[in-house]
Amino acid sequence: MKHGDHLKNKMLFAFVCLVALAAPVRAQKAGNFGAGVVIGAPTGATGKLWINDTQALDMGLAWNSQLTVYGDYLWHGWNILPQPAKGKLPLYFGVGAQVRTFDDSEFSVRTVAGIAYWLPNNPVEIFAELVPLFHLTRHTGAGIDGSVGVRYYFH
Questions:
Q1: Second label for 112, Cα 20 to 30 Å away, from 76, 95, 123, 146?
Q2: Averaged pLDDT for residues 92-96
Q3: Where are the domains of the chain?
Q4: Which of 16-30, 32-46, 105-119 has the lowest mean pLDDT?
Q5: Which one of 1.10.260.40, 1.20.120.80, 2.40.160.20, 1.10.357.10 gives the CATH number of domain 3-154?
Q6: Residue 119: which residues within 8 A CB-CB, separation 6 or more?
Q7: Residue 51 phi, psi dihedral angles, 5° rounding
Q8: What single string gives the DSSP state of each residue in the chain?
Q9: Are 96 and 112 in contact (CB under 8 A)?
Q10: How many C-alpha atoms does 145 have within 13 Å on its Cβ side?
Q11: Residue 63: what are its φ and ψ, rounded to 5°?
Q12: What average pLDDT is seen over the chain?
């Protein structure tokens, strides 16, 4: 093999890898709904409704020492991590809002960064996320929540 051919093969391989990494995950279809549990801050019930192949609405009703209600708009499909032999492992990001009830209610803007694992041949998503919060009422300032969870998708 000539040196030029070897360089072309390396460039082709690099291009294919970049295209594969940039391709969105096609794990769900518009209209699919998943329900499950989330543990951490907050702990409770979660649901996700897919709008299209890469965007979804995430909502939750949770409780720790107070009731928390939240909703997020999520963008999925960043396959920048090495993918498992079976299933899918995308990153996702989003923005939303939440209300927590204390003696006074607290309203916060949520930003979401998460990772999901889609089980092969099963309608199950396992996820972990970090959620920076920007409190707009009660105690203004910032905080961070983190949780893990699982959802089952009904087709």
A1: 123
A2: 97
A3: 3-154
A4: 16-30
A5: 2.40.160.20
A6: 87, 125, 126
A7: -90, -40
A8: --HHHHHHHHHHHHHHHHHHHHSPP----TT-EEEEEEEESS-EEEEEEESSSSEEEEEEEEESSSEEEEEEEEEEEE--SPPPSSSB--EEEEEEEEEEESSSEEEEEEEEEEEEEEPTTSSEEEEEEEEEEEE-SSS-EEEEEEEEEEEEEE-
A9: yes
A10: 24
A11: -150, 135
A12: 83
Cβ proximity of 81 and 91 under 8 Å: yes
Place of tokens 């979804």: 56
The rounded radius of gyration (Å) of the Cα atoms in the chain is: 19
**Token reading at 20:** 């594969």
Give residue 66's pLDDT. 86
